[in-house]
Amino acid sequence: MLKKIIYILLIVIWCAVIFFLSNMSALESGSKSKEFLKNVTVFSTGFAYKVGILDHVPSAKSVDNFVNRYHTPFRKACHASEFFVLATILMFAIRKNTKFSLRTSALITLGICFLYSATDEIHQIFVKGRGAAFVDCLIDTAGSILAVVIYYLAKMINIELNKKRA
User: Fold this and answer.
1) Residue 104 is part of which domain span?
2) What CA–CA distance (Å, rounded) separates 110 from 12?
3) In whole angstroms, what is the distance from residue 83 CA to residue 26 CA?
4) Using CB atoms within 10 A as the burial measure, which of 12, 21, 62, 147 is most buried?
5) SS3 50
6) Does residue 42 belong to any structural domain of this protein?
7) Residue 126 domain-assigned?
8) What domain count does the chain have?
9) Nearest-CA neighbor of 15 among 4, 23, 5, 3?
């Protein structure tokens, strides 16, 4: 029973995180993600220079150009990542607390993730400077599909390894 409660709490908390991130205005969300990408870029290139991977630290202008070029793909990857995490939690919760088959668990997970993504996009209509984008819903769902596929493959590998041990 405690595990069930923990899974439910994890799902609720993660959905709240997604809601919180979606509730930021377009300006706030864009500036925070751009700042984060810039900080990661500066840190990682500085580290790569210190360990000898790079022969120089990129200039501030080069970093800014990189951030401006990859900011949108980075934001879309974040969309997919949010729902990758949600799908992972859901898959574990459903598999550990029900007797549904792997396939049924996957379909339920994908359905919940798609519906939550759709409601998240509708919610963004009411947030300053934001709007609903079906493409984002598809990107979110792609992140969910990736999580389910990885879960499925891990289960199949585990089954095969257990057969070889027997």
Assistant:
1) 2-29+73-165
2) 17
3) 20
4) 147
5) helix
6) no
7) yes
8) 1
9) 23
Residues with Cβ < 8 Å from 8, sequence gap 6 or more? 93
Take residue 16 and report the two structure tokens written for it.
Answer: 């709240």
Scanning 51-133, the segments in alpha helix (DSSP H) are: 60-97, 102-124
What share of residues in the chain are helix, strand, coil (percent, to 5)? 85, 0, 15
Tens place of pLDDT for every residue, the chain, 166 residues?
888 999 999 999 999 999 999 999 999 999 999 999 999 999 999 999 999 999 999 999 999 999 999 999 999 999 999 999 999 999 999 999 999 999 999 999 999 999 999 999 999 999 999 999 999 999 999 999 999 999 999 999 988 888 877 6
End-to-end C-alpha distance for the chain, whole angstroms: 32
For residue 158, being part of any structural domain is answered with yes
Are 151 and 88 in contact, with CB atoms under 8 Å apart? Answer: yes
d(CA 37, CA 84): 20
Whether residue 131 is contained in a domain is answered as yes
- Identify the CA nearest to 105 among candidates 83, 88, 120: 88
Q: Closest by alpha carbon to 83, among 30, 139, 9, 123?
A: 139
